[in-house]
Amino acid sequence: MYELNRTHARRAFKDLLGQANHFLITVLVGLDGVRSGKVDISSEFRTSWNPQNVKRSAERSRVFVLDLALIRAIDALDTFMMMSARKPSAIADKEFRAALDGTGRSVARRLDVFDENLPPLKQQHKAALLVAIQWRNQRVHSLSDDKLEKSTFRILRDHADWFASGYSGLTIGDFISNFKAGEAPTFKEAASVIRLTHEAVAHYDEHLLEDLPVERYLKVLLGELLSQGNADPSRAIKKTWGHPSKKETKVIRLLRMIGVNETPEVCGREVPKEFVERLVSLECDEVLQFIDA
Q1: Does a structural domain hold residue 29?
Q2: Which among 159, 189, 210 is the end of a domain?
Q3: Between vectors from CA 202 to CA 220 and to CA 189, what angle results, nearest 5°?
Q4: Residues 200, 220: one domain?
Q5: In angstroms, rounded to a whole number, what is the distance separating the alpha carbons of residues 190 and 23?
Q6: What would the pLDDT profile of 62-97 be if each residue is shown by its tens digit?
Q7: How far apart are CA 124 and CA 160, in angstroms?
Q8: pTM here?
Q9: Which domain-ending residue is among 192, 210, 228?
Q10: For residues 85-121, b (16+ Cβ closer than 10 Å) or e, as one string?
Q11: Which of 74, 117, 155, 254: disulfide with 127, CB 3.0–4.6 Å?
């Protein structure tokens, strides 16, 4: 059996945010070493890094890094939503795509559109993301005119136990207070936003896959892969379909590159076996016609 377990939009999201928590912790551990004076500065940096107050520099750098983590998380979420609508669109519904086109620069409005057109997130999950989006806007002095409703904060407070138990003891009162005060997020708050965005994208992507015209979608992905970098696709076609004894292995490898994998049990969206078999059976001069059909 074959399956597609994520869209190209989720792959792009993972590229941006996949290891974010690990990277964030690594940088903060390093800054903690700088602050405490335990880090031995290499000669590479001695001429360009010589702060008057090392502790203060480390503390300001920590704020900078936590801001970047918040910004990266929301930008990655926005990338997922925007790319879902771009060719090859993972959104089958034309009205859904049209609604996204009308959201302008607003990440919050795009989140509303996703929640209106797919099974929605838990209300407290969405509320936390709306605060994170506006927090990011504040920290980068965005021109966004999005406003948060009082009900957003009420929902968060009503579900304080949900956040505390599910997000490493996140204190929702502090989360709201730090946002309202215009402070940078704490480590726990930044890490929680990263996790919330991962969970939201996983939720939406699962439902996008359910409605995906999978064969047409995969044909477009294959066409883009074969023409990568505006290359002549005939070379890639010959390299894959021009060797009868290795053709199946090479086609399966191409499919893996666009997210299709063999599996004993389908957990994502099943890719018809007949589609894969037909793809393998093609001759070189039939490939483009099949993909464009």
Answers
A1: no
A2: 210
A3: 135
A4: no
A5: 12
A6: 999 999 999 999 999 999 999 999 989 999 999 999
A7: 9
A8: 0.92
A9: 210
A10: beebbbbeeeebbebbeebeebbbbbbbbbbebbeeb
A11: 155
